[in-house]
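Good morning,

Attaching, inline, the backbone tokens for the sequence recovery test we're adding to the shared suite. The designed sequence is right after.
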């Protein structure tokens, strides 16, 4: 929004800096961090008064109760949302890519908030039903896809499907059946990574720390995709206007750092579904819009492994139960998601989190490397 001030550089020379995405991205990160630190204490106080506390998982046993998490306020995702949304509105030019990204983020924040509200205030352990959640996520995906397909700036590029290591799109989604296929793929990415980050959010600082590295990488990818010279040099898809998504990603990095300040062990606040569902959806749709959806599997490797560990655990348990003479199932891991498996092995929570951060950073660097390997 404030980028328009660059038109008045004749009144004050330094305003010309607002023409540069990199400069506005830095301002977005700084603004989001400041907003997070300003509203953080106020928000946590309000959540405590409303008794929006987190119920710890008793299955983890003493490992979860070493620091009492039962009275730690949840819904901290509101801190991230407020910081990202305000900062992005201030510093990003509101083109179709930015508006769709912020719509998906805001809509899924509302879904996550409703889920947390039912769990915490209404004492509904399961929150909203899986069916209701899928309906909301489907509606969000449909609106986002329709906006991108109908808008003249994005209707051609959003139909292209790119994969790492190749110099050309592998498929162009046509009308009719093609758009259905595009919807299915986008839906899977938004819902898949929403649930993956939700599963990762089980230890202090784990999910947000990994989210920061992923957001940083996709900020770089968005800037590269939106710059004709860089895109041509790297032989990646040039998508005009997506450079502004670098500002959104930078705002997420700044907001994430502010939230991590309060979420680091022992956590003063948890993001809850209010944060995790929306963050996964935002990252998923950004990856799609910058033509790097499959690279997210590598960059977000920690999230993928967390989700796979749950799928393996459930599948193995059902299989062994079905083929067991006693009718009892076996577990592949000591506990899923996999971060709890390492806790059961005796690793301190901080060690699990720090090592997962290291792995996330390695995955992010590997994902960046794919830009050059064409």
């Amino acid at each position: 929004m404030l980028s328009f001030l660059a038109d008045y550089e004749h009144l004050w020379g330094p305003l010309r800096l607002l023409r540069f995405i990199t400069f506005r991205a830095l301002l977005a990160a700084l603004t989001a961090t400041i907003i997070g630190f300003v509203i953080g204490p106020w928000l946590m106080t309000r959540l405590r008064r409303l008794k929006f506390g987190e119920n710890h998982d008793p299955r983890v046993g003493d490992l979860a109760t070493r620091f009492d998490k039962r009275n730690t306020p949840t819904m901290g995702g509101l801190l991230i949302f407020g910081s990202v949304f305000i900062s992005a509105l201030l510093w990003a030019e509101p083109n179709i890519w930015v508006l769709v990204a912020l719509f998906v983020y805001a809509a899924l924040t509302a879904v996550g908030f409703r889920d947390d509200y039912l769990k915490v205030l209404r004492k509904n352990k399961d929150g909203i039903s899986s069916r209701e959640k899928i309906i909301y996520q489907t509606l969000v995906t449909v609106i986002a896809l329709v906006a991108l397909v109908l808008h003249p700036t994005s209707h051609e590029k959003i139909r292209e499907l790119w994969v790492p290591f190749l110099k050309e799109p592998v498929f162009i989604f046509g009308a009719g059946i093609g758009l259905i296929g595009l919807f299915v793929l986008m839906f899977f990415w938004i819902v898949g990574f929403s649930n993956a980050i939700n599963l990762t959010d089980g230890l202090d600082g784990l999910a947000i720390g990994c989210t920061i590295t992923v957001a940083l990488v996709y900020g770089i990818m968005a800037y590269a995709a939106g710059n004709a010279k860089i895109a041509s040099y790297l032989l990646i898809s040039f998508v005009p206007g997506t450079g502004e998504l670098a500002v959104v990603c930078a705002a997420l990095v700044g907001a994430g750092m502010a939230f991590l300040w309060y979420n680091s062990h022992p956590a003063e606040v948890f993001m809850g579904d209010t944060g995790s569902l929306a963050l996964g959806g935002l990252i998923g749709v950004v990856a799609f819009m910058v033509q790097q959806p499959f690279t997210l599997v590598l960059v977000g490797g920690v999230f993928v492994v967390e989700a796979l560990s749950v799928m393996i655990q459930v599948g193995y348990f059902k299989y062994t139960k079905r083929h067991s003479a006693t009718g009892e199932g076996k577990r592949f891991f000591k506990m899923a998601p996999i971060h709890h498996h390492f806790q059961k092995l005796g690793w301190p929570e901080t060690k699990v989190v720090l090592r997962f951060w290291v792995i996330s950073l390695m995955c992010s660097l590997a994902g960046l490397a794919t830009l050059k390997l064409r």
